[in-house]
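User:
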Amino acid sequence: MTFEVILLALASTIRPTSLAAVYTLLSSPAPRRLMIAYVIAGLTFTIAFGALVVWAFHGIAVSSGTDRAKGIGDIAAAVVVLGFAALVLTGRISGPHADAPRAPGRWEQLLDQHRTVRTAALAGPATHIPGIFYLAALNVIVANHTSVAAGIVEILLYNVIWFALPITALTICIVEPDTARTVVGGVADWALHHARTILVVLSLGIGIVLLVHGLITI
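Assistant: Predicted structure:
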């Protein structure tokens, strides 16, 4: 397993839209089946997306697996992640402000109005649209592995880490739904108050690590 993929996966774990959706689902009268639908549908979508990307790139004969390819992959991912950090730092990409009143998101409203398995299943993929960190990780995976099978293993690892909070919430929910709701609510509040700092620190840190590793490898 590549260290870079794990780093990028950890950076993806706290996603405000996902936390809000999970909290809303946990507030329903029957949260367990809704959470199961949410997690399974979300994982199915993101894993399938990653597998398709890896398969497509290997299908066009990308010269992966060499030290040069690994280095270039890391550097390319670093440029993307550092560019994202710069946009957040300069305010071109802004997150929610802790001192502003928080309006319910579109998926929060929909899930609150229609607490069905179908809606929960739709929310799983919708709140986990592949973002900058996942795309950077896929770039690293393609550059590091010569086989689709090895790439799929790392995609599975990435997604299990990415969905760590929903999976943990589901596990706690099976035993004690109220506790799961309290935990998710606390994490969501903390993320709201530190959203910009989290994005900048993680992006800069991961971008620098990828850049240095890429330059050394190449």
